[in-house]
Amino acid sequence: MTSLIHATAAELADLLSTGVVSSEEVTRAHLDQIADVDGEVHAYLYVDSDRALDTARQVDRKRQQGEQLGRLAGVPVGLKDAFTYMGAPTTCGSKILEGWYPPYNATVTQKLIDADMIILGKTNMDEFAMGSSTENSAYGPTCNPWDLHRIPGGSGGGSAAALASFQAPLTIGSDTGGSIRQPAAVTGTVGVKPTYGAASRYGLVAMASSLDQPGPCARNVMDAALLHEVICGHDPKDSTSINAEVPNVVAAAATKDVRGLKIGIVKELGGEGYEPEVLARFREAIDLLANAGAEIHEVSCPHFPAALGAYYLIMPSEVSSNLARFDAMRYGLRVGDDGSTSTEQVMRTTRGAGFGAEVKRRIILGTYALSSGYYDAYYGSAQKVRTLIIRDFTQAFETVDVLMSPTSPTTAFTIGERANDPIAMYKADLCTIPTNLAGNAAMSIPAGLGDNSMPVGVQIMAPPQGDDRLYRVGGALEALLQDKWGGPLLGTLAKEAR
Q1: Angle value at C-alpha 7, between 35 and 89, nearest 5 degrees
Q2: By residue range, what is the domain housing residue 283?
Q3: pLDDT at 498
């Protein structure tokens, strides 16, 4: 039998449903793996061992008593530390929330609980999801399991690294400008940003409210689809939640057929600045799809090159507004209150001590962009560019079913390599940002290894509420690639781990 930590979530679900293994056994195996390897990887900020085991025993009892359980009942999952979870600290990777225990569950968290899944703990992230490398966490960086000297992507590097190091079969992430997909690309895993509003943002600590979107992270497309169905759906607690039926992504992932599908290759997402091996793996993936019967078309989205600039005006502006709530008056860190200082001084001292450099940079940039005399020139202009990008997508999807591009221009860079160059860091999200600005759906799947033996990802983009298209193309391409490789890309790491 496949080692429990190397099994897919679907395989674990089948083993659990047939009584071959218990949820307690599966949970304990993953907790043991966390104890063995996370000292080096640092994928988790908090491991909830006792509660995870207790929940697993409860699920086992329910199963023994013949209760109807969901497909993923008893399967472990890691939760990004941006989602509230009663009884566990939620820090968002920031000192300003150190030791804060939320009084309510995020909707995504509650859906995992209601599905009888086992939450192993909270995964590491860039502070308030601001970063592309998980180096901005106030609690130290996460390392890429393929090479511990390299970054695992960001902001959700902890969720991706937990998958690649077999510390969880599934994890939850959030994607504001690529924070699920870019980590997936550089760790050889699968990451999905659902259509904006498909998964509730209630209880997801806000970074940029018009961009943030929860999504599933997994080691293969089918596992991502199973988790997608658990966490998505209408939520009256979120005013931006879509009141529509969740597309049948599980059936789409199982199709593995792209005959007749029209796939558009975005001309603007490639060329100068992209590593040659990234473009080579992308072309190989496209060739496989073409040979499988897909129609390949080059598509121009002329305003995509302006997406990075627009994003880094819209996102900091929303950050400036959202992070104003962390003021030392209601919860979280409080510094400098010795009875002799003013409220304003306490706020200033606390925010200075509690926020890291990247968070401060974005707050200042956003406050400036929203200030009197500059709003129209900066924030207003960026919103106009956003409209043009949405039009590019709309026009493209009139002629093709999905769009494709590399997920990230490069493979994982070394820890510290871009620490003093924020612009170079921001460019890691060059390919992923347009979908966040437009609100449509996107997925990253592994496409092979670069010349440095590090993973390369390819991105699939679909129109709003066309999430099932992602899974149809992703499932088919994954099967084609695995036939070529002789198994999953992460199989090489699994063999080394054994």
Answers
A1: 40
A2: 9-304+386-497
A3: 46
Which pLDDT does position 376 carry in this prediction? 87
> Any idea which residue has 């400098």 for tokens?
336
CATH number, position 216: 3.90.1300.10
In angstroms, the CA 76 to CA 479 distance is 25
pTM: 0.96
Domain-located, residue 98: yes
Catalytic site includes residue 155: yes
Q: Name the pairing type of β-strands 76-80 and 118-123.
A: parallel
Q: Judge residue 355's burial from the number of C-beta atoms within 10 Å of its C-beta, 0-12 exposed, 13-18 middle, 19 or more buried.
A: buried
Q: What is the pLDDT of residues 158-198, one digit of tens each?
A: 999 999 999 999 999 999 999 999 999 999 999 999 999 99
Strands 190-193 and 214-218: antiparallel
- Domain-located, residue 154: yes
Is 412 within a domain? Answer: yes
Question: How many domains does the chain divide into?
Answer: 1
Active-site hit among 22, 23, 80, 174: 80
Which of 117-126, 229-238, 335-344, 400-409 comes out lowest in average pLDDT? Answer: 335-344
Paired residues of 434 in beta bridges? none
Question: What phi and psi, each to the nearest 5 degrees, are found at residue 214?
Answer: -65, 155
Q: 137, 159, 174, 179: which is the annotated catalytic residue?
A: 179
Pick the closest to residue 445 from 111, 182, 130 (CA basis). 182
Q: Which residue is catalytic, options 155, 174, 241, 444?
A: 155
Measured distance CA(443)–CA(255) in Å, rounded: 17
Given this model, what pLDDT does residue 496 score?
57
The 8-class DSSP code of residue 241 comes to -
Query: Does residue 417 fall inside a structural domain?
Result: yes
- For residue 470, how many other CB atoms are within 10 A of its CB? 32
Which residues have C-beta within 8 Å of that of residue 340, sequence separation ≥ 6? Answer: none
pLDDT value for 372: 81
Kindly provide the b/e burial profile for residues 10-36, where b requires at least 16 CB atoms within 10 angstroms of the residue's own CB.
Answer: bbbbebbeeeebbbbebbbbbbebbee
pLDDT in tens, 119-135: 999 999 999 999 999 99
Q: Is 45 helix (H, G, I), strand (E, B) or coil?
A: strand
Q: Is the Cβ–Cβ distance between 143 and 125 less than 8 Å? A: no
Kindly state the average pLDDT of the residues 425-442: 96
| pLDDT tens-digit series, residues 265-275 | 999 999 889 99
Tokens for 367, please give them. 């406050």
The pairing of beta strand 441-449 with beta strand 190-193: antiparallel
Backbone phi and psi for residue 263, each to the nearest 5 degrees, phi listed first: -110, 125
Active site residue 80: yes
